[in-house]
Amino acid sequence: MLQALELRDFVLVDAARLDLHPGLNVLSGETGAGKSLLVDALGLLTGVRAEAGLIRRGAERALVQAEFAGTTAPTSASRALVDGGRNHARLDGELVTVAELADGVGARVAVFAQHAQQALLAPRAQRDALDRLLEEDGRAARERWREAWRERADLQADLDALHAAARERLQRRDLLDLQLREIDEANPVAGEEDTLATEARRLRHVDGIRDALEGARGALDADDGALPALAAARRALDDAARLDADLEPLARDLRDAQAAASAILSELEVAGDRLDADPARLDAVERRIATLQRLFAKYGDGSAAVLAHREEVARERATLEADDARGDELAARIATLDAELEALGARLTAARRAAADRFERDVAPLLERLALPGATLRIAVEPTTPGPHGADAVRFEFAANPGEAVAPLAQAASGGELSRVMLAAWTLSGSDRTTLVFDEVDAGVGGEAAWAVGELLASLADRHQVLIVTHLAQVAAHADHHVVVGKRERDARTVTSLTPLEGDEARERELARMLAGHDGDAARATARDLRARARAARTGSAA
Question: With a threshold of 0.70, does the pTM exceed it?
Fold first, then answer.
């Protein structure tokens, strides 16, 4: 709910605060006092373009600020107009763009005035107004449509991303296949490069190894070699050990050394016997080493790294295959949703057309009460490109007089007619805004039509906070709260003043002025009658 509106240096207003309340808030006052300035100020908070001349003469900036009751954001909103500079907008104290300000305030307040945005003229607002009249099946179809549409949009985005990357994915898959094929054909074994290097070294140097073996054997087995010398030393030490038991460990070590040398000689003979030059085997080993080296250069330093790379490639390849399968799954789910949306769209269209028929039937007597006899207001529901809210274009169409062809509401209704049409429409459908602000809703009407405007505003105020600028006592009599907008001179300047009316006498005096231009006895009596009739109408009793 709009709790207060403050203006500073705004046109005729130097500083003023308008406190607002639940129910029907009425602004009245003499022509030129500045009643509509308050509505224009609210319009600025809902995004209306700032026109020149809004800053009070002699001031450098004007400020419009609103306070909202409750914890729902925003709780405050302001717009500052700077002379020769940029405007500044704030929501809850934070700087925002004018568009963001309009979104924030516009979600809570709708303004209908000559220079304010005509929210009901927007296609979205007209669709929303009709949808508030849907019966249960229509509301269920609309909600399920929105869910299915969002899911389809998300799935389509995923599928589009897969399709966009299809060429890259195919190229990547071919590269991975090539790598897998190359590694699998080589079939590396972890650690085999070390074994192959040892074997290749032996095969390359077989002659040198053989010569070294022969030299070692000769050094051990020749007449003057190590083995005969060890045998002579062992015999001598054995003799000494028989005479000196302390020498026995040395004799034993020498015997072990002789046995070890003999064993080594045997191994050298075996090694020499199996050591043969094998050029074919050397060639095969070197080819295998070259194959592995090519793999190492591409995929990792060593056979273990190459095998780890293969596992990673295989996983990525599986992921690419899964993406292809996911594309098929997404397409199948989208096709299922398309079929569901088609059925939901038919249900929603039927529900909207049924609601439009009920609206046209019910709004006709309201328009007649609002001094629009013979006027036609209908809602056209036509096919359009499917979107988040269905496959229907919803358009309010209006003809002010019998026999005229209907045309879009924005083209066919004058300012005063438009406000009354909105009042009738909202009386039937309600609004998603907490606060509804009207100016000129009673333009060009009087008598019972003016009374009907007041009754409908009061009815609307049972569900919403309503602010109305009026010059008609028949409307003002229904007010829950009444503020008089006046003007006075101060320091040779005209300034606007706001005076809340408290008590029956003050209310009746203002109604009398609105009726007769003075508060004489007859006018006061008529004012009392109007208030009594308004109270009776509000409570449902007879006037």
Answer: no
